[in-house]
Amino acid sequence: MLGKVIIVESDKQVVGILKGPFEEAGFQVEVAPSGEEGLALCLQFLPQVALVDVDLPDLDGLEVCRKLRSATRTGHIHIIVLARSVDRQARIRALETGVDDFIIIPFDPDEVTLRVRNALRRASADNLTDPVTGLPSGRLIQNRLRDLVVSGQDDWALLGLTIRYLEPFKETHGFLAAQEVLRSVARVLAAAVDQWGGTEDFIGHSGGGRFLVVTNVQRADDMTASLVENFQREILTHYTFREREQGFIVLKEDDVERQIPLMRLDVRKVTQADGPFYDIRSLTEALG
Predict the structure, then answer these.
(1) pLDDT digits (tens, 9 = 90+) for 209-229
(2) What is the third-level CATH fold of 3-125?
(3) Please, what is the Cα angle at 221 between 136 and 267, to 5 degrees?
(4) How far is CA 245 from the centre of its chain?
(5) Element spanning 205, H or E
(6) Which residue blocks in 213-279 are alpha helix, DSSP H?
(7) What's 272's DSSP letter?
């Protein structure tokens, strides 16, 4: 998959015109027919691009855009507004909410597909989102950690999560299977933050099998317990029946067989009380 895209649109004809070309281009596509469903889906699905119609049955589309842009978990999403007409005042209003692009209906679906592809390419090139999971990475993670250091707040918890034994799994099951593991872990993280966290919580993917979550310190332990439990249940679906039964995979190296445990999720919690932290480096070093 080239990236994750959400279409927030109540007009089924418009959805049909967009969805087909997007999927043919290799995008993973989800659809929400209303603003409230679109906001909830963006928090769960964590797309890189969201296309939002101005005229939704429940909410003003620009209000949806404003909420997406203002929430920590969705602030990085590339937002494209869909509108039947956009006058000067409407454009100014949209820009004030932080949208990135405008599409006038009717449109050329090939042109829209190219715009989405370019947005995904820029996000990857600028080291803003991970191309596999769609989660914030690189500079966005650094910015969030910098906020923790300079904010002076003491109610945050930083969770560093590492998937153990991911590399042996990739060696035996292949690169694509390992990518699917990363995507499923991203879904587990989003579900846990939905259950225990808030819109200001942050989820990032720092590369390979390493993720991080920023949440409130009072919710951190419950969230961690939920993450570990759900990970252990979800990760079993990526193994064969035999591997699940025996509790390990067999890795061959130079005609020598080794038994490798099934993947597990290690979590390290850091809070302001573990400081003081003067810069990002000291904070990340505390994660180990």
Answers:
(1) 999 999 999 999 999 999 999
(2) Rossmann fold (3.40.50)
(3) 55
(4) 32
(5) strand 202-207
(6) 220-235, 241-246
(7) G
List the structure tokens of 128: 């803003």
Letter for the amino acid at 143? N
Q: What is the dihedral of CA 161, 272, 73, 99, to 10 degrees?
A: -140
In tens, the pLDDT along 97-118 reads: 889 998 888 999 999 999 999 9
CB 33 within 8 A of CB 77: no
Burial class of residue 49 in the structure, from the number of CB atoms within 10 Å of its CB (0-12 exposed, 13-18 middle, 19+ buried): buried
pLDDT exceeds cutoff 60 at 87 = yes
Pairing mode, strands 3-8 and 27-32 = parallel
| Residue 227 and residue 82 in contact, taking contact as beta carbons nearer than 8 Å | no
- State the amino acid at position 253 in one-letter form: E
- ω into residue 276 within 30 of 0, thus cis? yes
Architecture of domain 138-287: 2-Layer Sandwich (3.30)
Rounded to two decimals, what is the model's pTM? Answer: 0.81
Domain segments of the chain as ranges: 3-125, 138-287
> Is the bond leading into 168 cis (omega within 30 degrees of zero)?
no
Distance (Å, rounded) from C-alpha 235 to C-alpha 163?
10
CA–CA gap between residue 42 and residue 22 (Å, rounded):
17
Between β-strands 248-253 and 210-216, what pairing exists: parallel, antiparallel or unpaired?
Answer: unpaired
138-157 pLDDT per residue, tens: 889 999 999 999 888 889 99
pLDDT tens column, 34-45: 999 999 999 888
Spatial distance between the Cα atoms of 119 and 79, rounded to a whole number of angstroms: 10
Strand-strand pairing, 78-83 and 49-53: parallel
CA 207/CA 132 separation, integer angstroms: 10
Spatial separation of the C-alpha atoms in residues 218 and 224, rounded to whole Å: 11
- Mean pLDDT over all residues of the chain? 91
Of 193, 131, 130, the residue nearest 159 (C-alpha)? 193
